[in-house]
Write a structure and sequence with these properties.
Rossmann fold, 16 helices, Uridine Diphospho-n-acetylenolpyruvylglucosamine Reductase, domain 3, disordered C terminus, elongated, five-stranded antiparallel sheet, alpha+beta, six-stranded mixed sheet
Amino acid sequence: MSIRQKTEEKVFSFLEQHHMIFPHDHIVVGVSGGADSVCLLFLLLEYAKRVPLKLSAVHVNHGIRPDAAQDAGYVEKLCRQQGVPFYLIEADVKGYASREKCSQEDAGRRLRYEAFHEISEKTGANKIAVAHNCNDRAETMLFHLFRGSGLKGMCGIRPVRREIIRPVLCLERQEIEDYLGERQIAWCTDSTNGTDDYARNRIRHHVLPYVEKELVGGCVAHMAQTADMLAEAEEYMAQQARRAWESCVEGPEGRFEISVEPFRKLHPAIQKKLLHMLAEELSPTGKDILSVHIAAILELFEGTVGRRVDLPMEIDAVRSYTKVILGKNRECVCPSLEVFVAGERLTGQRKYAVELGGKGTLEFALLLGRQCEEVPRKQYTKWFDYDKIKESICVRYRKTGDYLSIADGHGGILHKSLKEYMVTEKIPREERGLIPLLTEGSHILWVVGGRISEYYKVERNTERILQVQLINRSCPGSETEDENE
């Protein structure tokens, strides 16, 4: 069997094993002009003789090398000869890397995939084929290992990831060059591949050749086999972690609240996998979360209330009383709310409402004391002696100096700081700045959803009553007020 026949059968079997391509798929193919991508294009052209396909080629000019335009011209000519639609995307990798504060290598990767998705959407393609090979997979495994990656990183590059397919991942670099050589197909050589500027290049030029020559022959193929086994284990772990997610994680988008006790009952491996999944969900790139970060989050489950861990990509984790909260830097997104409710807005004939966004609506009404009976003992409906209010009341979030009036147990009233109240009520630190307050200056009438001030309570001789109701509520705060009063 010729090299061509052997290579094509190996790749076609790999395609079918991983269900990469189906009849009438439209595939965008990333073609840089290098050996890997040229081989990929010609193998897909051969496979299209067996299975009806539509191919479109995309070449991304990174704008780094002086000879990059020659590569683009070569790929365009190649595609024209083969009858494949060609798309050229110009990218400013250096400028992108500077703006996004990332390496040029990472910038190039991001811009390539943006280009592939752009052309995919433009042409109506449903798959994107890229030319990673078996050596790339081994290099990635080692790179992740050296960085302290978890099981997912040790799987290296996957054959399929959503719409991304990698048909030549089963081929080693030498097999690719041998295939092109037998078919007498030329390719371009990227001058940057010969340098040691990038970490992966140093692994490629020095680490793997040394291992292959001095330690274990066939190490790249052996690593590919290991990666496949690790991928199976990773998929099983991911399934178990998704079940754990349903049982012990809640919270709105961009914020995950992990219940401590159910989490502690999980196997340590599932704990780590779950935390990886949550952190990667919050990361814009799904990367940069290493084992050391997961270990730091794990310590919070045994730590003290209020302890915080800062993670990459502006993610942080905070220990609450019964939960560990994982989210984007909440202190950088401080809520804004300040609505004054002047007395002239309130009459016995009409109500006044203040919208609290997703937390509901505060509705104000003025009642006559002689027309009212028993004071309501409801958590979200409160009465206040309106004649004790001398200034415009305000709906806002907490400020320094806020306080409540509470009974001292001897018929008197004393002041209690809002911070002290929240600590006593065990309101999580990360929620304290999100609770709406009804205030007169620094004096709090009502911690909405929690306690009201003793000073403003309705008495037997109260003539006018301010009724405040929280409607369509979704508000953090104390759940114990009715029991305490």
